[in-house]
Amino acid sequence: MTYRTTGLDPSRFAPLFQLPDDELALRSIMRIEVTEWPGFPCRISLDDAEPGETVLLLNHASVEQGPYAATHAIFVSEAARQGRYEDEVPPALDRRLLSLRAFDAADMMLDALVAGPGEADEAIRRLFDKPAVHYIHAHNATRGCFAAAVERT
Q1: 15: helix, strand or coil
Q2: What is d(CA 139, CA 35) in angstroms, rounded to the nearest whole number?
Q3: CA 59, 146, 50, 12 torsion: positive or negative?
Q4: Which InterPro entries does the record cross-reference, listed alphabetically (predicted)?
Q5: Which of 8, 52, 56, 115 is a plausible cystine mate for 120, CB 3.0–4.6 Å?
C-alpha cells in the first residue's frame, strides 16, 4: 500500500497576496510576517515557512459537505511551491502531534488515530489497511488546524 500527500494548489491563493490588507480583512484574511521557526506550517509546501516570509492566515474548508463538514484556519506562504510527498510524511506534519481522520468515499469518518512526532507514517498505513478508507485528513492536534489530505495510491 502506498500513499501521497500533496499541498494545496498555490494558484488558488496567489491573487490574494496582491490585495491590500483592508481588502483581505473584508474576507477575514490576515497577512502575517513569519517571526519564528517552526510555527507557521504552510499548507502549500507542507513545511514550515521561514522567518521573514509572508503568509496569509485564512479559513479553509477541508470537508465541504455532510455531517463531517469542517473548516479551520490555515497558513499559506507567498513563496511556497506545491509540496508532493510519496510514501513519506511531509516535514511540517512529521514534527507535530497529529489527529489523523480516515474517511470513506462519501466523506464519512470511519476511524481516527493520534500520532506523535515521527509516528504518522505507521499510523497512516494502519488506517489505510482498512479497504473502505478512501482518504485521511491530518490535523494539528493541539490547535486543530487542517494540515493536509493523504490519498491512497
Answers
A1: helix
A2: 22
A3: negative
A4: DUF1203
A5: 115
Range list of β-strands (E), the chain: 3-6, 30-33, 54-63, 70-77, 84-86, 98-103, 109-115, 135-140, 146-152
Per-residue buried b or exposed e for 104-140, using 16+ beta carbons within 10 Å of the residue's own CB: eeebebeeebebeeebbeebbeebbeeeebbbbbbbb
- The pTM score is 0.92
- Helix %, strand %, coil % for the chain, to 5? 15, 40, 45
C-alpha cell at 75: 497558513
Tell me the average pLDDT across 84-101: 97
Average pLDDT, the chain: 95
Q: Quick one: which of 16, 146, 150, 26 has its CA closest to 83?
A: 150
d(CA 39, CA 105): 32
Q: Which sequence spans correspond to the domains of the chain?
A: 3-152
Distance CA 153, CA 119 (A): 20
Residue type, 88: E
